[in-house]
Amino acid sequence: MTGILDSVNQRTQLVGQNRLELLTFRLMGRQRYGINVFKVKEVLQCPKLTRMPNLHHLVKGVAHIRGQTISVIDLSLAVGGRPTTDIENCFVVISEFNRSVQGFLVSSVERIINMHWESILPPPEGAGKANYLTAVTNIDNELVEILDVEKILQKSRQWLRLWTAISRLRLPKLSRKNRSKLLSAL
């Protein structure tokens, strides 16, 4: 118990030391990503996901975790990459902010790294407004893209609201199959 309390105490003291802790992980590829651990509630092996009718294409499924039903967003798809495969060997990063809990599906989780803020750089010029980077850094001679999970979730929610509104429309001229194709294209 003392070890756990020491760990919590050490992490809470980071606030005054101009330091940042990053959880590093990979999506569907070799690129390494990171997010601020203060945005992470928990990381766990991907549980069984339940597919539900008319789910948005970014949502791989829902999971019942610790008494809550949580949507699990395919983070690779959300940032413009390939869909995540081999879900049984993936991980879910549970994040909570704005009183909302959601899961982000990632291919692998590496480690937590304690860094000085001087090592964190702004995203490269020309990254564009649609980019989900909040910053970049270099770890072990490898560029790590630090993701802005709030921006990803905000964009996902905009798509989810649009998708939900369209899914409720009665489109009499479209067959059920073509309507499903239209909805999944969003």
From TrEMBL:
Domain called CheW-like: residue spans: 19-158
SUPFAM superfamilies the UniProt entry points to: CheW-like
Regions crossing the membrane: none
Cross-referenced Gene3D superfamilies: CheA-289, Domain 4 (2.40.50.180), SH3 Domains (2.30.30.40)
Pfam families the UniProt entry points to: CheW
Domain of life: Bacteria
PANTHER family assigned: CHEMOTAXIS PROTEIN CHEV
The name this protein goes by in its record: Chemotaxis protein CheV
